[in-house]
Amino acid sequence: xxxxxxGDIAPAALGVTDSHxxxxxxxxxxxxxxxxxxxxxEAELRAFAAAGGQGLAQWTPMGLGRRAGHLAALxxxxxxxxxxxxxxxxxxxxxxxTLTPLLNGLAERFIAELxxxxxxxxxxxxxxxxxxxxxxxxxxxxxxxxxHASMTFEAAAAAHHATGVTIAVHLEGGTHPLGVLxxxxxxxxxxxxxxxxxxxxxxxxxxxxxxAGAFLGFDGPSRANHATDWRLFDCLAAxxxxxxxxxxxxxxxxxxxxxxxxxxxxxxxxxxLTDIRxxxxxxFGPDVADAFFLHNPARAFDTDWQA
Length: 307
Description:
The chain has helices spanning 38-50, 68-78, 96-102, 106-115, 147-163, 177-183, 203-212, 232-241, 271-284, 286-300; strands at 2-4, 7-9, 17-21, 55-58, 81-83, 85-87, 135-139, 167-170, 192-195, 215-219, 248-251. The chain is of the alpha/beta class.
């Protein structure tokens, strides 16, 4: 089953999916660019639905303004399945006074949000909401797994072993995918999504990660991370040619107010379908498009929930 904010659904029900995006996101690294407007989030999600979108994975973890209390209503209003994240980002995204309380009993926090319900960001030890997380999001550092990442990876692995959940990993600058798989000791690569690979378009590690069994996340264009947009289709073509079509996931990764179509300069969440998916269809055909947007997400977020 896939765990959405409105309850568990069969994988086949997920539909055309944005495998990595943000409706809400507030980072200390992006002051003044917070995604914190529920009305704009709803407009963005409705536009995504109008473009044919049916499912979206929001990778915003604990403590980054994910507005957990709004997610179920947004999902219902737009008619889009939402998969919410627990987990923890890099330390630099948090003010110290926010991060320090979250680090106590980290694995237990992840597991509780997966099995009991999300907590409000301002009340991480409060009563659970009815909406539960459906993935764990953690983050590596540039070409390494630093001390903070090692701690969050250990907690994510514990949550996986307790529940079977998929682990989604922010690769800083798209780097260190093989090191990340090694650091998630005991977690099958097939339960790991490696995000931001488009930011470091080195085809060798991409193929090795695919051969190990991981899902490969190519997300963007985001206004904040667009330097390698022009290499995206080269990377996709190489992986298709080497037989890894069934491991590729695509997402919009809208992380800033300026990048939102509904209230900023865009291109926003709908662009993933109106432009990227349209080009996938044109360049690679409907079978590949269905793999990227329909079948692969259904498998990537499917969990044999143990709790």
